[in-house]
């Protein structure tokens, strides 16, 4: 990690570590839970001596991008204070993203204000998009994956002997 990435990580960790919704995944990746949404906070190098913070919330997976959805997302992008809706065609996932500058000038208030807006928008729109267009919210996918992991040992048999 370059010095700007290290400085950014220190600000992120000092600012967010007291929140029960905060988790550190690794040296440059953090997750915050807000309602039914998860916001990933990634520290990304920019050149040799700068860093950015990219906020990404995966809202709904498994929906088809069709004209009504695309138009709705574009119209919403025009009204937002922070961030933008995006589309990942490889996973058929609607995202909400925003990027700010990191480094030694990163302001903890800017970090939190941006996270606040991204998290609230993600939590609101994952439900709205799923209701209108189908698919699954990330919370539902994570719960399904956790249940699959629990059940994979003996998925169709209860052991009464133990």
Structure characterization notes:
The protein has 162 residues and is an alpha+beta fold. Helix content is 40%, strand content 30%. The chain has helices at residues 3-16, 67-77, 108-133, 138-151; strands at residues 22-26, 29-34, 37-46, 50-61, 84-88, 93-101, 136-137. Strands 1, 2, 3, 4, 5, 6 and 7 form a seven-stranded antiparallel beta sheet that branches. The radius of gyration is 18 Å and the shape is globular.
Summarize this, please?
With 162 residues, this protein is an alpha+beta fold. The protein has helices spanning 3-16, 67-77, 108-133, 138-151; strands at 22-26, 29-34, 37-46, 50-61, 84-88, 93-101, 136-137.
